[in-house]
Amino acid sequence: xxxxxxxxxxxxxxxxxxxxxxxxxxxxxxxxxxxxxxxxxxxxxxxxxxxxxxxxxx
Length: 58
Fold this sequence. Notes:
The chain is an all-beta fold. The protein is built from no helices and 5 strands. A hairpin with a 2-residue loop joins strand 1 and strand 2.
């Protein structure tokens, strides 16, 4: 299921922090996101949830 989210905007929760960006890769040691401010690498062991971001209208 995670593979289906690759290339989509996702919300990742880890260590009580919520990250938002385009899911680039889920590796054995890190989850990689491309956000508006740059690249984010989150240790896989800290990730609690990955889900597709809800689209906002506006």
